[in-house]
């Protein structure tokens, strides 16, 4: 009987160990998956850009000449309107332009006012894409 009790105890310990290991592996995989979702490169306005430069960038990106015509998200009522700052609005359109045209350093220059970052600048419902 003692031997059978020890075997059952060892079996339960082994099953518990397997269960805990499975939960740990599953949690680790979920964390890796979240990290992968947030990886990428984005183009945003740098800290040196003046308000006039930022406004010029918005105007150009949202024009036929700039080629990026969907600026609805930064208009009043749009998902990226808030915070209502030139820097945030310019960063949104700069990133959209950069992503749509191949994500090269040249496409994030914007006359020296753009920079690439590796942290996702998305906030709330405002999603900055990264392809």
Automatic annotation (TrEMBL):
<dbReference type="Pfam" id="PF07983">
    <property type="entry name" value="X8"/>
</dbReference>
<feature type="signal peptide">
    <location>
        <begin position="1"/>
        <end position="28"/>
    </location>
</feature>
<feature type="domain" description="X8">
    <location>
        <begin position="41"/>
        <end position="128"/>
    </location>
</feature>
<keyword id="KW-0732">Signal</keyword>
<keyword id="KW-0449">Lipoprotein</keyword>
<dbReference type="InterPro" id="IPR044788">
    <property type="entry name" value="X8_dom_prot"/>
</dbReference>
<protein>
    <submittedName>
        <fullName>Major pollen allergen Ole e 10-like</fullName>
    </submittedName>
</protein>
<keyword id="KW-0325">Glycoprotein</keyword>
<keyword id="KW-0472">Membrane</keyword>
<keyword id="KW-0336">GPI-anchor</keyword>
<dbReference type="InterPro" id="IPR012946">
    <property type="entry name" value="X8"/>
</dbReference>
